[in-house]
Amino acid sequence: MAPSQQLLTDYNIDNAKLVLQNGIKEMEKKIADEKIMKYIYIAQGKLASLVGRVFSDEGRLSPNVLRGVLQQ
Fold first, then answer.
1. For residue 57, is it left (φ>0), alpha (ψ between -120 and 50) or beta?
2. Given this model, what pLDDT does residue 8 score?
3. DSSP letters of 3-59?
4. Separation between Cα atoms, residue 11 and residue 29, nearest integer Å
5. Which pLDDT score is estimated for 22?
6. Within 10 Å of residue 55's Cβ, how many Cβ atoms?
7. Which residues contact 16 (CB under 8 A, 6 or more apart)?
8. What stretches in the chain show pLDDT beneath 70?
9. CB-based contacts of 6: which residues, under 8 Å, 6+ apart?
């Protein structure tokens, strides 16, 4: 192989490595973002559930339920 061809091959290999590394980093970031969003949705659901238990049907605070929620 001619020296210029070897340099081009080495350059292409290095470029391919960089592209793969960047792709891996991007996928790791996406996975982390998805996990964070999953936990946010779970937390939102739990918060909505707690709020629903704290307020009575008439929209007033229910002291007994509020005490129970705060003790959890």
1. alpha
2. 73
3. HHHHHHHHHHHHHHHHHHHHHHHHHHHHHHHHHHHHHHHHHHHHHHHHHHHHB-TTS
4. 27
5. 93
6. 14
7. none
8. 1-2, 53-72
9. none
- Give tens-digit pLDDT for 13-29: 888 999 999 999 999 99
Name the residue type at position 32.
A
CA dist., res. 5 & res. 46, Å (int): 61
CB distance 53 to 65 below 8 Å: yes
How far apart, in whole angstroms, are the C-alpha atoms of residue 26 and residue 31? 9
Task: Answer whether 44's CB lies under 8 Å from 28's CB.
Answer: no
